[in-house]
């Protein structure tokens, strides 16, 4: 079945965009200060409450790709597709919580995870982490601007470039002055709108196409794997790679870390649990639209899976609902784009300028200037690259590998006093190198070579499971779970895992970086005093340290 896309007039779309971005900018005027301070610009002075924090985390993690990828999962893998995408994505939020408590305990006044690594190891390790976050946030920014351009071009006569420019200018307009404070405030409003619209649109599409009965009748169109809730195709091609990515994104993504450092410490647990549940519910619901399309025999327009949700909404619903859907997607991509701008500015302010250029003697006014300049420059770069519609898949692969390779070194550096700067840098480089060999099959994955990589991947799988269990249940449970998982994978995965390149290469990055990090650390007898981190990481604005100390004393 072919469904055509409904189109608004250019004037209608421009009015919708003006209303959204104008309203968002108006909200930020209520918190605008004549003299913004540096720490508020980066992390709201570590005073974000539970409700705002949970809403901001949820809205940030629901980006444009969540809509299209969730629907694609439902359309491709059937019943289990939306569950795999939404569940593992939600766990990315949850699994930073146990490690986040340690990060906050080590450095209560931190703005970025890179500051902790700088205090622990120095510049080289910190800049590796900062570089991965800069690349990740820039790519995310481009993806969201690209999604805005595509949405505008398919739902109106306006060009792709027009949509990209309007989205870029709109997000920058309300984020530029107040930075992170503006991002978290608008996230709250955007999430309320997003939830309200999603709750209306998803059931509306279902009943417009004939209701649950019609959907169930279409299950005969599904293959056996698509109809299976425990589909091995879905698990091996999507579920397992996403599960492996959980820790990589949780530890490596500055947009999450920034909210970790911004939320009031006593609210960290409920904030992350609530965001986990909120994200999972909304994204699984959006993925069901892809399953609806599959059961009704809808074919994506021009063979592009990204057209599935616009097709379903515009073909089954009246213009008012299509307008709500338009705002829904614009709101989701904007909430993530403003978080990317805030993350990029914090990295340049704290990691690059504060710790490396100013050497700990940073000028707050200059930091604010650098932060705002970073936002302007990042927006321009995002617009330019999005306008050319570059293929960013290769860049995403490298960023994902870099995040996977840094997970164990970062966590170990915060719990084990034997990890050295040399161990950190060499393990990340080795993990990334071996990932590239496996991911792009630079050597034939056959015979002893394939077995070697499968064994390294099995160790990586044990590391993933071990770290997750360690985060919630402690060291002994983590070791036991990791060893059992690693041995089990060695037995079952040898001769099998080589057929699943994405999963194999991701696990290899974990396994190699862990082995190298542990081996190099054990060769050195140096033992680090973790109390030094708290002394080396502080606020940048004069007088804020005294106010922070008074606040903590009052809460105690």
Automatic annotation (TrEMBL):
Protein name (database record): Sodium:proline symporter
Subcellular location as annotated: Cell membrane
Membrane topology: Multi-pass membrane protein
Organism for this UniProt entry: Oceanisphaera arctica
CDD domains: SLC5sbd_DUR3
Entry's transmembrane regions: 6-27, 48-71, 83-100, 127-152, 158-177, 189-209, 229-251, 272-296, 316-334, 367-386, 392-416, 423-443, 449-470, 477-497, 503-523
Xref: PROSITE patterns: NA_SOLUT_SYMP_3
GO molecular function terms listed in the Swiss-Prot or TrEMBL record: symporter activity
GO biological process: sodium ion transport
PANTHER family with a match to the protein in the record: SODIUM/PROLINE SYMPORTER-RELATED, SODIUM_PROLINE SYMPORTER
InterPro entries: Na/Glc_symporter_sf, Na/solute_symporter, Sodium:Solute_Symporter
GO CC aspect terms: plasma membrane
Catalyzed reactions: L-proline(in) + Na(+)(in) = L-proline(out) + Na(+)(out)
Short name of one Pfam family: SSF
